[in-house]
Amino acid sequence: MNREIMLEAENLSAWYGAARILYDLAFEVKRGEVVALMGRNGAGKSTTMKAVMGLMARREGSVRFNGRDISRLEAYRIARLGLGFTPEDRRIFSDLTVVENLDVGRQDPRKFADGTPAPAWTPEKLFALFPNLAERRHHLGSQLSGGEQQMLTVARTLMGNPLLVLLDEPSEGVAPVIVEQMANTIVELKAQGLSLLLSEQNLHFAALVSDRVYLLEKGHICWHGSMADLLDNAEVQRSFLTV
Amino acid sequence: MSLNSLLFQALDGLAAASGLFFVAAGLSLIFGVTRIINIAHGSLYMLGTYVAATLANHIGGALGFWGGILTTAVLIGLIGAVIEVVLLRRIYRAPELFQLLATFALVLVINDATLWTWGPEDVLGPRAPGLRGAVEVLGRYLPSYDVFLIAAGPVVLIALHFVLIRTRFGRLIRAATQDREMLGALGVNQALLFTSVFALGSLLSGLGGALQIAREPANLLMDLTVISDAFVVVVVGGMGSIPGAYLAAVVIAEVKALCISIGVVTIAGVAVNVSKLTLVAEFLVMALVLIARPYGLLGRAQSMVRALAEPEDPLRPAGPALKLLGAAAVVALALLPLLARNSPYALVLGIDVLIAVLFAASLHFIMGPGGMHSFGHAAYFGLGAYAAALLVKWFALSMPPALIAAPVVALLGAALFGWFAVRLSGVYLAMLTLAFAQIVWSIVFQWSEVTGGSNGVLGIWPTAPFDNRAALFWLTAALTVVGILLLRTFLFAPFGYAMRAGRDSPLRAEAIGIDVKRVHWIGFTIAGAVCGVAGGVFAFAKGSISPETIDVSRSINGLVMVLLGGIQTLSGPIVGASVFALLQDTIMRQTEYWRALLGGVILLLVLAFPAGIVGGLGKLGTAWRRRP
After folding, report:
1. Number of domains in chain B
2. What is the pLDDT of residue B306?
3. Which among A204, A203, A182, A186 is positioned nearest to A195, based on CA atoms?
4. Cβ B185–A76 below 8 Å, yes or no?
5. Mutate which of B186, B242, B295, B619 to disrupt the A interface (most A C-beta within 10 Å)?
6. Tell me, what's the ipTM?
């Protein structure tokens, strides 16, 4: 199947101060696809996401999203083109209630390039997707558990009606039951037509949801292929994923 | 005194509290969202008073008064928006203290613009049409306008609270206070949000100023008094808390009002004039609140703000080229008295520059490597200067022992104040140091019997062999060079590494066994002692010392010097202080409007070198070496 490319990076590099973190990355995410960016701690997964999102002070290379060059845009402009971002450390507004957090993420409904409408989210729809949040809608962000915060950060991003979501370490530091729920959510979002680029260390989790995989090590992409290929290739798994 | 008159003074205090609240609420909002400590906020208040008084006088009647106040508030809001767009927006990624420097430059520019427009005379507004009368309260007459002001405070408080809780704009403000970068990643245009918050905060300040026209005349000193009051209110109430700002405004206005009304009391046979305490009362309150509740009455621990600035390069020992340059500078210093035989002023200026350099280097020691942003470094300068001067005056000590006493007294003062200060961080630490400096200043100012009060101590002349310009210059140069080398030795000793580790990550530093508070306390004390040397030399170089030479503007000048040079290099404060002292000297002799010129120069430097002069040159150098 030859689907349109939603997100495409070429020669993407990024620095923290004088330290170079990413080296000429090239990757793409097609429409309706779930792609996993995998690698050990410190491989550069989160930095890649931040670089795509325009959150790194110094980056080079080209990033195209939905047919537009976004490599020089500010983060808010990128978000307004329909690129959603959920950071690994969740970054919930802890002084705001769940409902207020969702309201902050709100954007207008959006269409794909071919005119099909993207899923349009409302707080009610999101509460149906994440029933735990519904019960706590008037609690402050700081009163939520880690898992609830993880759901809220995804829900908050969905309020912007994105076409593609960058999901940074969705399974990190949450209870197994939440991890399972996250996996279901990703499958559900994919079914609704969204594309996702997720960063993961957990092969088991990534295998449940992803179509394709890029493996990162020390800021380089060292392997890419389908999830099925990765699962068959114990050698690659051992070289780049096993701790 | 009667209970009635006490209650009456309390009402008067409430009226004053409203104005204080408006300006503090604006400051707090702006700080919360943009993380900029806007020193120019008081200047907007001052402008508000001038503009509103002018409108009321020229248009006249109820329209001129009430319409003028509203017009003024909107106008000041617009000016705030322009400042944000033209200046601050360019430097959001610069280190926070640099933004502070920029707003300080604005203070200078606005002050001179006001002087140029309205002249040096106070501008009096008319009395409020419709509220000229007074109401009888407790057997006395309270002006109706005060009643109006007393009501205006809570009304604005409730309106602001409504906006923050109930509107999307308010939610965005609260969200931005916590994590503005995330807000951007969610599609919120921060630039627009920042501009509107800045405009709203400025509007509140302008409103506060405009409402004062029926109470006090507009004058050119308002900007700094108002900003220091507003800082105290914001810090006492808790950064970012609007109800806290109101509560603190009331507490401080009341304490001041009560000090005045109590007057002279006799405690154990000694007459104490409590009304003299008004100068220091608010700082005493602030110091007490910060010691007991480090985040203010209604504040909470500040969430770690994500720094937008690039991580700084670590300090490195000077390379051979820089060492050579330093040695050349020392030789030049040694030769200057011989070269400048025919221009005695060069030596006078040279001594001033050297004192500024030592002062700035000691401040930099705690600000840069220590990460403690002291807004009250003048205290230790003052302690050193007054220690030397008073020993000469009362005990007829000669110069050498008096100069030795200067750092000792400054060290003791810094050890005492530093013990409290290092328990705080960020803005709170800055404000506590400011409070301590104000307390030192007030003691010096009020304790006339010992310190000579506002006249200061006169006739502190150097004794032989330093009683000629050249010898005094050599002494100053030697002390400055030794002081700087001493600070440098500390920085590259394990102690210095521990201090920087504590600055960069207190938790990790503690985890490897560093007692961060203790290390920072010792650092604070060392800086105070070195600063005391600068103060002691200053007293002898000028032959006198007075409260105005150790007031808040000296602390601010020190900040400007350090920031001008760049905070993360050791040569930064040296260059910054020299440039600043020379600029101040040349510009002051050129024009009446030296403040505006100085401010303009600082603004240009900030925009051209957001990492300070030396930092900027260093970056240029790196870029040059990296060129393809």
Report:
1. 2
2. 42
3. A186
4. yes
5. B186
6. 0.93
